[in-house]
Amino acid sequence: MSRPGAVTFKGAPLTLAGDAVTVGQDAPDFTLHYFEDGMQPITLADVKGKPTLLSVVPSLDTGVCQIQTKKFNETIGQMGDQVNALTVSLDLPFAMNRFCGAENITNLRSASDYQNRNFGKNWGTLIEELLIECRAIFVLDADGKVLHVQYVDEVTDEPDYEAALAALKS
């Protein structure tokens, strides 16, 4: 699905910063952070070598984001170590760890864009008015080429899980 110029939140239009990522392009670079024995970076180079799912959510402190993360965690777990999977948000890494630990999220790594919002700007997921990520799904091949893109038009809606997983398995 191509990104509209905007998304909606409960029907209200909002603007996305940056350019849309499209199928077939090389994935934009990123540096995200997670907390494990201190703050650690994770970059595009770190996920190359395996197909990768990037599940972008506004906040793990909301119901739909939790559902999305739990559904992908369950399905990704069935694929073993053949894929990489990240949940990306602007939540602090500590809060992401707390949620993932409490909910037994072990098949997706939580990765925060809190430091400079460069993921949101480079991937076209940053909602300008709210300075949080929109809901989006990206699937990359092992070389970092974009295989699947979905910018969810209404931020409170769930993504198309089946389309993303089909792209990941291909």
Topology:
Layout: E1 6-9, E2 12-15, E3 31-35, E4 39-43, H1 44-47, E5 52-56, H2 63-77, E6 84-89, H3 93-102, E7 109-112, H4 118-123, E8 126-127, E9 132-133, E10 136-140, E11 146-151, H5 161-169
Parallel strand pairs: 5-6, 6-7
Antiparallel strand pairs: 1-2, 3-4, 5-10, 8-9, 10-11
Description:
By secondary structure, this protein is of the alpha+beta class. It has 5 helices and 11 strands; from the N terminus they run ββββαβαβαβαββββα. The model has no long low-confidence stretch (mean pLDDT 90).
Strand segment tally: 11
Sheet with most strands: strand arrangement:
7-6-5-10-11
Helix percent reads: 25-40%
The chain-level structural class is alpha+beta
Mean pLDDT: 90
The CATH superfamily is known as Glutaredoxin
CATH topology, which one? Glutaredoxin
User: Which CATH architecture?
Assistant: 3-Layer(aba) Sandwich
Tally of individual domains: 1
Unreliable stretches (pLDDT < 50, length at least 5) are none
Shape: globular
Biggest sheet character: 5 strands, mixed
Beta-strand content estimate = 25-35%
Please state the CA-atom Rg, rounded to the nearest Å.
14 Å
Give the CA-CA distance, first to last residue.
18 Å
- Element order: H for helix, E for strand: EEEEHEHEHEHEEEEH
Determine and state the CATH class: Alpha Beta
Number of helix segments? 5
